[in-house]
Amino acid sequence: MIIEQQQIITTHNLAVLFDGLSLSEQLKDRLPELAEKCFVWICKRAQVKTPPGHATLIMLKHTAYAWRQMVFYLSFLEAARAAAFVSRAEDHLQKQGAGFRVRFRPALIGLRLAIDGKTVDDPHSAALGARRFLGWTVQRHWVLGDQPPGLLRRLFKRDEN
User: Fold this and answer.
1) Collapsing DSSP states into helix, strand and coil, what is residue 12?
2) End-to-end alpha carbon distance in the chain
3) Per-residue pLDDT tens digits for 69-110
4) What is the C-alpha to C-alpha distance for residues 28 and 17, in angstroms, rounded to an integer?
5) What are phi and psi of 10, to 5 degrees?
6) Would you say 131 and 109 are in contact if contact means Cβ atoms under 8 Å apart?
7) Where are the domains of the chain?
8) SS3 113
9) In angstroms, rounded to a whole number, what is the distance separating the alpha carbons of residues 119 and 14?
């Protein structure tokens, strides 16, 4: 979790690359498309059946990397274009499997609130079901829903003893 927090702070070094190579200017017209590609990949990858345990943890980590990359791209857009992206992402989410749709919707709610200048930590945001999508947690990851816990259950049983 500490490493992930550091990656969030440093934007996985994307900010350094964007600045050093003047990519924000070069890619400004493509950023919504790049963000959409990230979101489509997240939806696809998160729904691939993985064996419980380590493979599931890796899937969460990789989809969270893609989520951060997507948010980074969106951070260069004015609020109206970012909000339009979230509307398209919500449309795409509607086409996904029912279980994934329900489990992942809180991340999009959180993203929409962030674009509106709000935080998921606000009591109103929590009432809407908004969540921050991170790859690691010390508890069962909320995106997993009711999937069998596998490795996570064994790890947390050790902590309880």
Assistant:
1) helix
2) 22
3) 999 999 999 999 999 999 999 999 999 999 899 889 999 999
4) 14
5) -90, 5
6) yes
7) 2-160
8) helix
9) 23
